[in-house]
Amino acid sequence: MPPCFVWRNVSDMNDGANRDTTKRSARERLQAERERQKAKDKRRRTLVVSAAVVGVLGLAAVVGLIAANTGKGGPSAKGGPLVAPSGATGKDALAIQTGKAEAPSTLTVWEDFRCPACKAFETNYRDTVHELEAKGLLKVEYHLVTLIDGNMGGSGSLKSANAAACAQDAATFAPYHDLLFENQPEETNDAYGKNAKLLELAAKVDGLDTPDFRKCVEDGTHDSWVKKSQDAFRTGKFRGTPTVLLDGKDIFADQANPLTPQKLKEKVEAAGKGGAGGGAKASGAPASPQPSSSASASASASASASASRSGSPAAGRSAAPSRPASATRPSASGQGAADHSGMPVNH
Predict the structure, then answer these.
(1) What is the DSSP letter of 91?
(2) Which class for 313: exposed (0-12), middle (13-18), buried (19 or more C-beta within 10 A)?
(3) What is the model's pTM?
(4) Would you say 164 and 111 are in contact if contact means Cβ atoms under 8 Å apart?
(5) What pLDDT is stored for residue 71 in this prediction?
(6) What DSSP character marks residue 144?
(7) How far apart, in whole angstroms, are the C-alpha atoms of residue 17 and residue 223?
(8) N or C: which end of the chain has fewer CB within 10 A?
């Protein structure tokens, strides 16, 4: 009979095998549980990330919608929508017209409200231009540019031009235009770069200082329109500001025989009498009578007085009508010069 201890060894081996099997089963169950937990955690993370992405996309959509609406009706930032002022005319609606549309003669003026030579032109010619407009003989197409901002720095050219366009929306362009030139700061002083100054001047024009006008000025509603006008000026390769054309001809081109205010008046009145379908004839009314000798003398004296004022401090610069508008002029301090052909001098 075999020894008893042999059977004990076999039993021990079986017990060991059972324990190993049990341990492996436990490990396998634990591993399986861990895998299930990992899969569960992964699904939870996926759901959280997906929800976050959806939230971000939703927020982006809302922000985009707000931005789109702001671009349509809100402030005009750099590169914003181009909004022409009410009644703008000409190519790409870049001109603001004064006078009667059927007037036989057209004066095209490219101006910068910071430009001293432009102020000299306005000082010398304003009364004559307004007189001819009132007679229905002349209409003026104003193009507003930002040459001085580019030459001297600042934003006064842009902001004052925008404000003038806002005044056009309020049907008060002409008086505000004249007021801006009458109160023009020194060329190196960017006072018109402050909306407060532009609004202060607007308060002097009847009916202009309204909430709509203030919003237009502060929002820069017509900034992009002004910039497009400057682009057209650059593309046109004009010599500088002011550039003034009478029926397409530069009035300062002939330096030996420049067009003075009196000569402008005579030319426009002659066109009104002899021009087919223009001025008074267009409306069926008789042509304006030739001014008497005394009236002509008075007008000539007025023109001479106006021309002499161009050398006074009130004119801002000593630019006489006989000078080409792009001529080199003294700086605000009396030292150095600036050439408004587009290139700064002594800058």
Answers:
(1) G
(2) exposed
(3) 0.60
(4) no
(5) 33
(6) E
(7) 90
(8) N
Query: In 3-state terms, what secondary structure has residue 61?
Result: helix
Q: Where are the alpha helices (DSSP H) in the chain?
A: 4-73, 116-134, 147-152, 156-169, 173-182, 195-202, 211-219, 223-236, 261-274, 279-282, 293-309
331 vs 347: CA distance, rounded Å = 11
> DSSP string covering 79-92, please?
T----PPTT-BSGG
pLDDT at 26 over 80: no
Q: 144: closest CA among 240, 231, 229?
A: 229
Please, which residues bridge with residue 52 across strands?
none
Question: How buried is residue 318: exposed, middle or buried, by Cβ count under 10 Å (0-12/13-18/19+)?
Answer: middle
Per-residue pLDDT for 75 more than 80?
A: no
Question: What are the φ/ψ torsions at residue 213 (nearest 5 degrees)?
Answer: -65, -45
Residue carrying structure tokens 């909430």: 211
How far is residue 212's CA from residue 29's CA, in Å, rounded to a whole number? 77
